[in-house]
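Support request, please re-run this one:
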Amino acid sequence: MTRIGHGVRSSESEETIKKLREKNIMLEICPGSNIALGLYSSLEDHPINLLFKKKILYLNR
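Re-run finished. Output below.
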């Protein structure tokens, strides 16, 4: 299995989501760091739930 570190922004592209699912690529995601660094303002704004619903594999760091 291949994995991509810090691939959280992939949630912004349906085409990318489709490719991740087709190729069984896992994302390494750290919502706490993403929020602390200001990429997202809160957990509610973070796309981790969207990725889960889209059946994207991820490793929560």
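Residues 43 and 53 are 16 Å apart (CA to CA). The chain has one domain: 3-60.
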